[in-house]
Description:
638 residues; alpha+beta; six-stranded mixed β-sheet; four-stranded antiparallel β-sheet; 28 strands
Amino acid sequence: xxxxxxxxxxxxxxxxxxxxxxxxxxxxxxxxxxxxxxxxxxxxxxxxxxxxxxxxxxxxxxxxxxxxxxxxxxxxxxxxxxxxxxxxxxxxxxxxxxxxxxxxxxxxxxxxxxxxxxxxxxxxxxxxxxxxxxxxxxxxxxxxxxxxxxxxxxxxxxxxxxxxxxxxxxxxxxxxxxxxxxxxxxxxxxxxxxxxxxxxxxxxxxxxxxxxxxxxxxxxxxxxxxxxxxxxxxxxxxxxxxxxxxxxxxxxxxxxxxxxxxxxxxxxxxxxxxxxxxxxxxxxxxxxxxxxxxxxxxxxxxxxxxxxxxxxxxxxxxxxxxxxxxxxxxxxxxxxxxxxxxxxxxxxxxxxxxxxxxxxxxxxxxxxxxxxxxxxxxxxxxxxxxxxxxxxxxxxxxxxxxxxxxxxxxxxxxxxxxxxxxxxxxxxxxxxxxxxxxxxxxxxxxxxxxxxxxxxxxxxxxxxxxxxxxxxxxxxxxxxxxxxxxxxxxxxxxxxxxxxxxxxxxxxxxxxxxxxxxxxxxxxxxxxxxxxxxxxxxxxxxxxxxxxxxxxxxxxxxxxxxxxxxxxxxxxxxxxxxxxxxxxxxxxxxxxxxxxxxxxxxxxxxxxxxxxxxxxxxxxxxxxxxxxxxxxxxxxxx
Length: 638
């Protein structure tokens, strides 16, 4: 009886397996499977790939009837609104999928432009994206807010109406939906994509993630009083004397402290480090091709530069690759902001040198102008380049006391944006960790000020009091600190709209400065012997030139050019053709006009001889890579 039973059991097992579709082959993702209490992350790793789900009070997980910005929104909720708007505003909206993420989620993007006034690729354009870093969800909310603001004010606000009638705005709210979704549905955090990565270079992938030891759904900090000799040699924290309550910790040199501080979790791989190799570890904002450097361990000399999170090679990640390839296919874009959190700063190139060392002076002047525009809207304490301004925004290193100095970032988006793509590209950082004012008048806006503001204005919701916990390895410890998700990295939900609206108004202001080629006049003048002169006059009515100097250097844009388009049959036969363009004398009959500056007016003159009687129709075509495309029909030989 054994063999029939085994055969029957085998057939049952095969049938059951065939009935179960591969989980990631379905459109039902872990966050949508409400019956399952665990969230599973795709990828083969040496650590766990499933985590207990947690729902934060600061997040809306199911769409409501009205979109409000006193709460964060899951990627699914954002996509719900994008699909709804695409159906509601078909004359000005296109919604499409630009790529699939590492786990296979759709990466959606929207184009907003008045379709009746021309194709989106024929207009000057701006591109705004967010969500590249998993936990920096405030940036995605800024894109969502701007999208709603544009759509609801079209036809009501004259400047927004003109913008959408004459320009194209491209919006991508979630460039890394895998990471953002994991962040909002679990206690887990990571930098970007969830692709497994050996962060600590021990040959194992993602083997030491953070753990929610007390089961509250949040990964806080653990502090342990140094007791043993080895602990005292490693101790690098003291109680911050500015806070008599003993909540705030101060980083000091190793061996100079009284405490050890870890993130919540255990040492899964037994290497004496805690949570150093969690889910993923790649950084999509170090994966761009401009000035890319190998990831840690990739410099075999030990004397060169490496860049943590850089990936195996430039654009190794689909999320970054989709952005770059899409932008290169759309060279009509002059302005970009690819946003992050949490340093309140208008952040721009260069990332590996000082501004005046590597930027054209004319381009730097444009960037400095945009810095000032941004500060006027947001009031951020900083605006400037990554290499110098960002790295030295604090004048001294708080641990060593040494003066800070410029530091490079490699494979960085703003450098790709300027040096490779020739655009005005920002990587703005939203939120300030609650440091709303300088409470102790020391000239710095830091964790102390954030703690004081949390006490004063946020009902102490941003900081968990230190609470005793028996750690399975460390013994008695205390767990607490700033809420890592909705205070340290992103603000409490009631602060959200204040930040994203100001940031979005800066993005909108940049879009309103896009170049704009206007065809001012086309005149036709009859000469002798059936010859005609066509004079074309145009100007750049925008506030940006049609090309930055860097864009000219790297040939991302072509010269502005004018052509006359006749029926091809009329031009056949060279000298015997029914229509001959006698000026310009160039074979391609194109007038190349350089790059039109702001406010500059230019003209081009054609001469055409008709070898048959009119009337004959032609189109004047004015093409500018970033200034737009215009055409006008004329008639010769009336």
